[in-house]
Amino acid sequence: MKGYRFVTGAVVGALTSATMMVAVQAAEYPTKAIELIVPYAAGGGTDLVARAYADAVNRHLPQSVGVVNKTGGGGAVGLSEIMAARPDGYRIGMGTVEITTLPNLGVARFTADDFTPIARLNAEPSAITVNANAPWKTIEEFLAYAKENPGKVRIGNSGTGAIWHLAAEALATKSGLKFSHIPYDGANPAVTALLGNHIEAVSVSPAEVSSHIAAGTLRILAVMDDQRSKAFPDAPTLKEKGIDVTVATWRGIVVPKKTPANVVETLRAASKKAVEEQGFRDQLAKMNLSYAYLDGPEYKVAMEKDAEMFKVLMKQIGLAK
Amino acid sequence: MYELDMLLHGAQALFNQPMALLLALFGVTLGIIIGALPGLTATMGVAILLPFTFGMDPLSGLLMISGVFFGGIYGGSVTAILLKIPGTPAAAATAIDGFELTKKGQAGIALGTATFSSFLGGTASVFVLIFLAPVLARFALEFSASESFALAVFGLSIIASISGVSVIKGLISGFLGLLLATVGLDPMGGFPRYTGGYTELFNVPFIPVMIGLFAAAEAFKSLEDPQVRAGMAAALDRIIPPWHMFRRQIGNIARSSGLGIIIGMIPGAGADIAAFVAYNEAKRFSKTPENYGKGELGAVAACESGANGCTGGALLTMLTLGIPGDAVTAVMLGALTLQGLQPGPLLFKDHADLVFTLFAGMLVCYVMMLVVGLGSLRFMGRILQMPKSVLTPCILALCIVGTYAINNSLFDIWIMLAAGVVGYFMQKWDFPASPVVLALIMGPMAEANFRRALSLSGGSYDFLYTRPITAVLLTIAILTLMLPLLRRLWAQRSSGGPTTINPAAGSSRMGTPE
């Protein structure tokens, strides 16, 4: 088996000497430690998913996977680095939904096509959440109020062009409403503003408001998902209400496009085993994060769908360059 | 009293868990080291240790992280005082007077005062957290964009008091900082400004600039004369400040701790802001404000008690409301969630035993910080005995490693070195570096919140005077700027001539169109 792979490697390698080096190394993949680049700061949601994954996948690979945080530019710095990495499988990365949004903003050197998806690990839908003292008990009441008072409803998000801003914009365009979008420096400050009644709603994920829902200070009116959230089964989806909007952030493992097929296969197989571990799922559940595994090919489909949706949406709302 | 009862129970439970105490000690020690090294901040230390807490029981994990948090905020002062290298942004304020004291040969007393002040400020804040948490928590929610804007403007007005000899040069430095702060992603629109196409410049590389301006600039300067260790006492003779000296600082420490606690509670404002505000107020209330900037012990005491006072304040809103008061507690929020403890109003109800054991542990952490701090100072003080030819390369190497560690980015190192060159010339021509740092902290905060407040109010400027906290903070800011001018006018009138101003009181020259 090993010999056969080597022969394959040699045949490919005969084409050019440069690719031969990669291929021979790839035949034995992995022979040294693998770097997992996380485009966000240590301690954040993406980082925690990455570290839980690294823990789990280490048991299924002969070499260890180490997490390296490369922050900046709302993810652009780290994602560019993953794209530009030597495609030998020793620098893999956490690909997030920003792969599909940043190219439209004209601030990234990559597009979704520059990556080969390995495995989606987690996904969180957007949700419309209001203060518990707010007069709106249902999403219909909320949308009706927004219709009567165009521009009066202030929805907090995690930054202009960031995923939760796009979610609120998607709702606005689909339902023909006009909101006032207030960008904050991340989801948490937006939730804080909602708690203090300085804004009317936030469009962040249910996980990011769960402690306040439990305490009864905030109320989720609807989630932008295909099905209801397991943690909050009482909140309807927008789809149920006849508004076809699904927007979610997601995180998963990606590698540069030119990575050899056998490396991709090795990583896919190891990731599949890693996510099947109860320990990994428990770890996600503890962090209020939803397990949303998709294998490489399905992950690619989901990614392409989002890339198309955001391209249209961001052009519509004037964010795209 | 319910809280006192619970705290005693907690203390009992705590001392049955030697492992947790050991880990707390480890956390505090590591925190001090991380804090002392340029580039490594408390936020980073907590983030790095976070994955190790996955396998621990909640108490041990959380105490270790709290230890890193407390130690990290304090540790920055040691290198700030000894070498003028602020290990953390909060210590940039401490460096102003701390290093002047070292130059005068009073490094020991300065370090001792910093340690005691950190301990007192931190302990006071933990007590406030224990006894007043439910009462104070709502205050944080009153803070919206307009209040944060007003706080940032007030912060910027502090430039006048940290400028040192020449206020004009201080203002020039401050405006340089404000200009630098405009680089990066527009906080509201999200498009890049002055980035030259570099994604690395999307966020202002604040810590590399700070390391460059202070540490690298100092290292470049000492390259000029590698032989001598000019004008510094070789050893620390006395560390524990004599009572008659320390007694005078008690009121100052109490005020600074209080300010620290309040600023800690405000979302988005952390120890760095607290230290600068405490410095400003200490100078305002001091009988000898002209000594500030020339090596005043009160300045060190104020900055350190303010910065550590922040810890309890930031924890307060994080634990009771689930909203982090600063960057460190934002990471700690993740740690708590991982342990199955959902921060928020229910935490105190559902996990009261654990919470109060944790509080008892936090008090122990501060005692540990005091002991480890005082114990290590003599050892740290030996840095001063190192020949410059050894120390300078070490500092430069530390600057580079520390800068790289922030984002694993080579780009940041070039930024740091460029800032170092600028800092060298600023020092040569007497432009103070701390206004640049202050402007880099406050500038983005003021801009983002002003524009956010405008879009919250639908474009109306009413928020500037209709919201009480905003109006009060803006008024204080204007007073801070006007006070030197008013004092001067008053002095002129009472003495009848314009020539009587003491030229040493630099701030009184401010704004006079002569």
Key features of this structure:
heterodimer, A: 321 residues, alpha/beta, D-Maltodextrin-Binding Protein, domain 2, 2 domains, 6-stranded mixed beta sheet, 5-stranded mixed beta sheet, 12 helices, 11 strands, globular, B: 514 residues, mainly alpha, two-stranded antiparallel ribbon, 21 helices, 71% helix, disordered C terminus
Please explain how this structure is put together.
The complex is a heterodimer of chains A (321) and B (514). Helices cover 43% and strands 19% of the residues of chain A. Chain A has 321 residues and is α/β, with parallel strands linked by helices. In chain A, the strands form two sheets. In chain A, strands 2-1-3-10-4-11 form a six-stranded mixed β-sheet, with helices on both faces. In chain A, strands 7-6-8-5-9 form a five-stranded mixed β-sheet, sandwiched between helices. The radius of gyration of chain A is 21 Å and the shape is globular. The model of chain A is unreliable at 9-23 (pLDDT under 50). Chain B is an all-alpha fold. Chain B has one domain (22-495, 503-509). In chain B, 71% of the residues lie in helices and 1% in strands. Chain B contains 21 helices and two strands. Residues 497-514 of chain B have low confidence and may be disordered. At the A-B interface, α3, α4, β7, α8 and α9 of A face α3, α6, α14 and α19 of B. Chain A: Residues 1-26 form the signal peptide.
